[in-house]
Amino acid sequence: MKTEKLTVFSGVKTFVITLYIPLMSLMVFGGTLSSCTKGNSKNKIEKEVLNIPVLELQPQSVEVPQTYIADIQAIQFVEVRSKVAGFVDRIFVDEGQYVKKGQTLFQLSSTEYSEMVNSARANLAGAKAEQSASKVEIERLEILVNKKIISPSELELAKSKKAVADSQIAEAESMLKNAQTGLSYTTVKAPFDGIVDRIPHKTGSLVTENDLLTSITDISSVFAYYKVNENEYLTFMRNKIEGGADAFSEKLTLFLSDGEMYPHKGKLETTEGDIESGTGSIGFRVRFPNPDNLIKHGASGKIQMMSKLDQVFLIPQKSTFEIQDFTYVYVVDKEDTVKVRSFKPIHRYKNFYIAEGFEPGDRIVFEGIQQVKDGTKVVPQSVAAADVYPDFLGPR
């Protein structure tokens, strides 16, 4: 037994109360406190070991879309300009009208050029008459020379006159041809099948040489021009050498300015002759059919090209975090301890980063990255890859 004295003050009197506390009770109480403390500590340790979903990485072959800004042009686009000056007498077509090759579009005033043709024809006729007279004169003089009635010099003079007449005929023929050409320019015809653009000059307008009358576009097919980097160009060329260029071109899709996918696939036809030194890019040209004339010359759009990447790893975006332009992920080692690791994504597609540099079988924290930090001990809960990766994955 242990005796304790408790002094109690009540007014001016002091009372001493003796307390008898069994020693065994103190020992039991102390043991209970110690047991509670150890239990709480153990529970705290158990709470620090988290159950965390973990994804095991395996290399994949994936096809990801790459988008490029495209400049769309008609397969033929020609500005129709006046070759001679004059007034617009008649307009035979309307804006937006489809025309055939050789169809008359405009008629310019032709009176002046008609007169030039008539004058040239008259000059040609006069030159031919001079030539005929020279021939007759030469024949007459040859008889007289043979009879030795006149000297040969007169015959030579007549032949010289005929040569002058011959040159006048050649000059007159040239002038006639030029006049006829000028007259033909007053009738403006379509250079090929296509659609008439805006007509800026109306009937009665005075146009000078080289004034724009309209434009003709052939949009039965269109060209889409875009640029790729040197590595993508080399991939295409290797596929072409190996006979796979057709398969490569079949993966080209056009998205129009409203974001809608064009229903017809394009075919890659050619590339530019050199790589730009400043950008390291080279231009590609893709032909798209345009049976409904939906796409116009000068339209804008985007080319989407599928690129295949082998032996890469897909990292879910929700498994990553970024600090100052660096991307990080938590890797779980063999002792189930979390280690932070940085990586540089190659591409980002949908909800995934495509990366290299990991090893097959590496485990990363799939969810709950806010609950862990470097050095945290976890209880890994495996996540099935089939539940994580989308349908665009290729064969492993």
From TrEMBL:
Pfam families documented for this protein: Beta-barrel_RND, BSH_CzcB, RND-MFP_C
Coiled coil: none
Protein biosynthesis found in the keyword field: no
Keywords: Membrane, Transmembrane, Transmembrane helix
TM regions (residue ranges): 12-33
Residues covered by the CzcB-like barrel-sandwich hybrid domain: 77-218
Domain spans labelled Multidrug resistance protein MdtA-like beta-barrel: 239-296
InterPro entries membership: BSH_CzcB-like, MdtA-like_b-barrel, MdtA-like_C, RND_pump_MFP
GO cellular component entries: cell envelope; plasma membrane
BP terms from Gene Ontology: response to antibiotic
A Gene Ontology molecular function term of the record: transmembrane transporter activity
Domain (Multidrug resistance protein MdtA-like C-terminal permuted SH3) ranges: 312-370
Family indicated by similarity: Belongs to the membrane fusion protein (MFP) (TC 8.A.1) family.
PANTHER family: ACRA/E-RELATED COMPONENT OF DRUG EFFLUX TRANSPORTER, MULTIDRUG RESISTANCE PROTEIN MEXA
NCBIfam families, per database record: RND_mfp
Entry protein name: Membrane fusion protein, multidrug efflux system
Organism of derivation: Algoriphagus alkaliphilus
